Amino acid sequence: MTESEAQLERVRGWIADARRIVALTGAGISTDSGIPDFRGPQGVWTRDPAAEKQSTIQNYLADPDVRKAAWQARLRHPAWTARPNAGHEALVELERQGRLHGLVTQNIDELHQRAGNAPERVVEVHGTVRRVMCWQCGDRAPMESALARVRAGEEDPRCLRCGGILKSDTISFGQALVPEVIERAMTLAGEADLLLAVGSTLQVYPVAGMVPLAARAGARIVIVNAEPTPFDELADAVLRGPIGALLPAICA
Ligand code: NAD
Q1: Cα torsion through 179, 182, 188, 189, rounded to 10
Q2: pLDDT for 205-220, tens place per residue?
Q3: I need a surface site. Which of 43, 187, 199, 211 has the fewest CB within 10 A?
Q4: Ligand 1: distance of its center to the CA of 108 in Å?
């Protein structure tokens, strides 16, 4: 048995013994579904660093051209045609086995819910692209109705209730996180007996802080990611490879 096979076997045993697994997922779990990540080798921002600046809330609110471009980008978003992949399905399997205490995701694509994880178990720390919210009155509505208006010719559709600026119900750069949602994620991290971080560079705070928090509370830490993360030293195991193969192998 090679060292990596032995490690896989070890992690499989830890997962089988765990009762309160908390998964923390990032963009890397959805790349096999055709949604590019941000910071991976083929990531949206790796290829176009200027795109990161354009996605700040300040630019979005101040500049109608940024909003028009954002609506065009939303029309083309890969989430509309994406389907869950083997990585998502492995986390559904963990829930089916009764071991999944919580699933905290940085993703905005709702693929965990579409794969079959119970919506009440999924904590979306960065919101969802499948809804719009009004920056002025806070009204929320399905994204599809706003996209239909863009397709019909409105370049920057406004809130139908108050005329305010609409955006996707996601957390943009410069926008405050929702405190109750972050608190829920941190509470889950503190309750885990095993924290499984999948497909994230673990660079975005405060969510990345779930990893040291869970470790301090006594949880085993398992990281599955193609690239190194700042918490690899702290982890009990780091599985460096394709999520679509590794996650089903350790969760089966
Ligand atoms: P990230 O882009 O910073 O990092 C993704 C990591 O996953 C990279 O290290 C990459 O090497 C790795 N990876 C990609 N595909 C992989 C695969 N098949 N197997 C193994 N590893 C793989 O992602 P992040 O840490 O989640 O931060 C990006 C932020 O952008 C998130 O907070 C999220 O809100 C948002 N985002 C969401 C989506 C989505 O909803 N699918 C997509 C892009 C960005």
Answers
A1: -130
A2: 999 999 999 999 999 9
A3: 187
A4: 11
The domain ranges of the chain are 1-35+83-126+177-252, 38-81+127-170
DSSP 3-state of 1:
coil
Distance of CA 3 to the CA centre of its chain: 30
Architecture label for domain 1-35+83-126+177-252: 3-Layer(aba) Sandwich (3.40)
112 flagged as catalytic: no
Which residue lies with its CA nearest to atom 10 of ligand 1?
40
Whole-number Å distance between alpha carbons of 164 and 67: 13
Q: What pLDDT digit, counting tens, does each position of 213-244 carry?
A: 999 999 999 999 999 999 999 999 999 999 99
55 near 172, Cβ under 8 Å?
yes
Q: Name the β-bridge partners of 70.
A: none
Q: Which of 209, 196, 210, 213 is nearest to 250 (CA)?
A: 196
CB 113 within 8 A of CB 141: no
Query: Whose structure tokens read 């809804």?
Result: 131
pLDDT above 80 (res 47): no
CA-nearest residue, atom 13 of ligand 1: 28
Residues 6+ apart with CB under 8 A from 240: 225, 226, 227, 228
CATH dotted code for 38-81+127-170: 3.30.1600.10
